[in-house]
Amino acid sequence: MSLTEEHAVTLLLVEDDRFYVEFVTRLLANAGIRLESVDRLERACDRLSAGGVDAVILDLGLPDSWGLETFTRVHAHAPHLPVIVLTAQENVEVAREVIRQ
Q1: What percent of the chain has pLDDT over 90?
Q2: d(Cα 55, Cα 83) in Å, to the nearest integer?
Q3: The dihedral formed by the CA atoms of 36, 39, 94 and 52, expressed in degrees to the nearest 10
Q4: Do the Cβ atoms of 68 and 45 come closer than 8 Å?
Q5: Residue 55 vs residues 9, 33, 45, 77, 84: alpha-carbon distances, Å
Q6: Is the Cβ–Cβ distance between 36 and 24 less than 8 Å?
Q7: Beta partners for 65?
Q8: Closest Cα to residue 20, out of 61, 75, 55, 49?
Q9: What is the pLDDT of residues 46-75, one digit of tens each?
Q10: How confident is the model at residue 2 (pLDDT cuts 50, 70, 90)?
Q11: How confident is residue 3, by pLDDT bands cut at 50, 70 and 90?
Q12: How far does CA 30 lie from the centroid of its chain?
């Protein structure tokens, strides 16, 4: 393992849309970032519990969780990690609450 690989930032993408996962993977391919992806909140919580993740990119609409609860559960598993929230929801109140938390 090279020094760059050893110190690479690891992002966990929590997204169930495989096309979006492929898009983000291509987007970050040459950025020196290690990208891991899961498609369910339960899998994300398991992965976060294992450690070694530096930040999370989180879709609020998943098959096993929706809205603010999705963020709340991820934050409970890893309160020290930055979370970038993605959503197609147009609910401004949910967005404000996620930012507040």
Answers
A1: 65
A2: 6
A3: -30
A4: no
A5: 8, 11, 13, 12, 8
A6: no
A7: 62
A8: 61
A9: 999 999 999 999 999 899 998 889 999 999
A10: very low
A11: very low
A12: 19
